[in-house]
Write a structure and sequence with these properties.
By secondary structure, the protein is of the alpha/beta class. It is built from nine helices and six strands.
Length: 287
């Protein structure tokens, strides 16, 4: 499991580790930890494969680019760079659920609906496509992102053919995005039979240049990084009773320093005397 704490060179090296075990017949699972629950899906849709990346678009604001239509925010760019670039635009449309640093510069804000107000899909970190089902009608004038975009396109003379149907949107994805071929929206309704995207496998490459980049970073560290060999303690300090876990009485027993019970079938009335030596200051405190 790895995320943004690894450099691009280090991620490339990790991504090629399975090839070093192929002769041994071992199964290697790499689990990315992206920032958001649908980051993998957004990547599959090609958000980072346009003619210009985010940094290039911000640099061109006010010169080559005079207007922008932004769905969400420029999260990958430093805040000062965003504010300077957005201030140079002549016209900015922002499609958002919340007020952000980006929406502060908007001439027009199109209110997007939340996940609880829409039907659709997410593609999780394992590549499984998960259905999202509408729980409540969209509040006020908000609409799902794809509805806003398709209606705007219709006003500009382009018909996406979605007919306000999430199933039609997913059919468009299956017809045009590699890995989603032959997937159909109705097949996703049974969560007991998860459907996984068929991502293509990266071809083996020479990792020498990437290893040089990793070694360079390590050599420049000050003080020199030391390998951690101690096994961290795992226990109740990692958990803090929250809104959901508060409903499970067994979590209170664990949080109080008790050993893990043999079974979760413990009566809420069952009392355990806690040894004061087992109590320790929480290592992680969340909101």
């Amino acid at each position: 499991m790895f995320g943004g704490e690894l450099s691009r060179d280090a991620q490339a090296v990790v991504g090629h580790l399975p090839y070093s075990h192929v002769s041994e017949g071992r199964r290697v699972l790499l689990h990315p930890l992206p920032l958001f629950n649908n980051s993998i899906g957004a990547h599959d849709m090609g958000w980072d494969k346009g003619a210009m990346n985010v940094s290039q678009m911000l640099e061109a604001a006010g010169s080559e680019i005079h207007a922008m239509y932004v769905a969400g925010s420029f999260l990958s760019a430093p805040l000062e760079n965003r504010e300077d670039a957005l201030g140079r635009l002549e016209f900015l449309v922002v499609q958002e659920l919340f007020e952000t640093a980006t929406s502060n510069y908007a001439d027009v804000i199109l209110p997007a609906a939340s996940f609880a107000e829409i039907d659709g899909t997410f593609t999780n970190n394992d590549g499984f496509v998960q259905r999202v089902r509408q729980s409540i009608p969209p509040v006020h004038q908000s609409k799902p992102d794809w509805v806003i975009t398709s209606q705007l396109a219709s006003e500009l003379g382009v018909d996406f053919g979605f007919r306000l149907s999430a199933s039609a949107v997913f059919r468009e994805i299956a017809d045009n995005v590699p890995g989603y071929t032959n997937l159909r929206y109705p097949l996703l309704k049974d969560e007991t039979q998860p459907v996984q995207v068929k991502h293509s496998l990266a071809q083996q490459q020479d990792t020498l240049d990437w290893m040089v980049g990793v070694r360079t970073v390590l050599e420049e560290m000050n003080p020199p990084a030391q390998k951690l060999t101690r096994t961290p303690e795992v226990g109740h300090e990692l958990f803090r009773i929250g809104t959901l876990t508060d409903k499970v009485p067994q979590f209170h027993l664990l949080a109080a320093g008790n050993p893990r019970p043999e079974t979760v079938r413990i009566s809420p009335l069952y009392q355990i005397t806690v040894d004061a030596d087992l109590r320790r200051e929480a290592a992680v405190v969340g909101d």
